Amino acid sequence: MTPSQDLAPLQVTDSPEEKFREYLEIRGEKLTEPRRVLVNHIFNTHKHFDADELVADLRESGRRVSRSTVYRTLRLMVDAGLLRELRLTNRSAYEHSYGYPSHDHMHCTQCGAIVEFRNEEIRKLRELIGQEFGFRPDNHRFVITGQCSDCLKARGRRRKLDQI
Amino acid sequence: MTPSQDLAPLQVTDSPEEKFREYLEIRGEKLTEPRRVLVNHIFNTHKHFDADELVADLRESGRRVSRSTVYRTLRLMVDAGLLRELRLTNRSAYEHSYGYPSHDHMHCTQCGAIVEFRNEEIRKLRELIGQEFGFRPDNHRFVITGQCSDCLKARGRRRKLDQI
DNA sequence: TTGTGTGCAAAAGTTTTGCAGTTTT
DNA sequence: AAAACTGCAAAACTTTTGCACACAA
Question: Which of A3, A86, B68, B116 lies 20 to 30 angstroms, CA to CA, from A130?
Answer without folding.
Answer: A86
